[in-house]
Amino acid sequence: MRRLWLIFSQAVTISVAVLFVVSTLKPEWLRGATPSSVVAIFEAPGGSGDNGDPLPANAPGSYAQAAQRSMPAVVHIFTSKEVRTQRHPLFDDPVFRHFFGERPDSSPRQRAAGLGSGVIVSPDGFVLTNNHVIEAADEIEVALNDGRKFPARLVGRDPETDLAVLKLQTDAQFPVITFAQADSLNVGDVVLAIGNPFGVGQTVTMGIISALGRTHLGINTFENYIQTDAAINPGNSGGALVDSAGNLVGINTAIYSRSGGSLGIGFAIPVSLARNVLEQIVTSGQVTRGWVGVEIQEITPELAESFGLTDPSGALIAGVLRGSPAERAGIRPGDVLIGVDGRNVRDTKSMLEMVAALPPGNVARFRVRRANSELDLDVEVGRRPTPARN
Q1: Which residue range or ranges hold the PDZ domain (predicted)?
Q2: Residue 139: beta bridge partners?
Q3: DSSP labels, 204-215
Q4: Any residues with CB less than 8 A from the CB of 209 and at least 6 apart, and which?
Q5: Superfamily (CATH) of domain 290-383
Q6: For the domain 190-284, what is the CATH superfamily, name and number?
Q7: Taking the domains of the chain in order of start, what are their residue ranges?
Q8: Cross-strand bridge partners of residue 253
Q9: Active site residues
């Protein structure tokens, strides 16, 4: 019996020793795992392993997911156009030409380059950007965030909102941005501005919505800007302004600056206006708006007093174009437009937007205040002329 006990004790001792050695030198044998999984536990937080697991949620105060969601759809736009250099005054001097002869190449053409940003809005490669980014360009190249580059053609442009639509010249499929709801923004919301400032590469800046509905800035004919303090610099034009979920809320367009750099006052075209222009350009290659042929003027307190107006609301008709729909309908200079199809006209901005939204060819009822009376006039809406290209 004692001998059996000694054998048992020795076996237990040897087993414990073997277990100690294995757990110290080869712990993975006890877990049934491979050595590579031991290395995987040292990955930096926020990464995903080789198994393709999704990234963990953002840390508080981080907008990484919003940036990662929208950045692939924001592109860099490179343009070039041929320009004629200035002729040297000496070539106009007869004495100089007598000794050196005529130089037909004295005003050589050179190529001027420009840059901006854009947003891919469809898988087949439609890109929304600013009109001033591609204006007068005869060559357009678009570079994606992943390094791919494609030539692009101009589908259509709308100078009055400073928007343009491009089409990538390829059959490839592309990542697209998600449009936010038109009424989803509020002052104080966090937004990210994504673009290619100064050509340094794709950059994300953060700020808040400072104001909504900014008008009378003198930037474009139709203005309804989002104001933000997210840094917007040259090269950001046409890029995306996205919310904290990565949805597109605006197209970065302009800044207020005395130095050329960001001063915390940037402006973006809201997604509601951008969507309307995009759909019209993709469908017909242009934007169609209503027009009646009047010159309008804001009613100031001084004008209201001189015209004897007790109510300063409305838009003063300062002039009527000869042969225009307004003249045919009987609208006269000095009338005050106060209503269009039953909707009140508050000021010149609302009047311009109401008339532009009317379908050409339709008849709209205009209410005007003339002297001490109000008149209803039926106006056959015309088509707004396309602005002359510089």
Answers
A1: 281-347
A2: 80
A3: EEEEEEEEEEE-
A4: 185, 186, 187, 188, 189, 191, 226, 227, 228
A5: PDZ domain (2.30.42.10)
A6: Trypsin-like serine proteases (2.40.10.10)
A7: 190-284, 290-383
A8: none
A9: 132, 162, 237
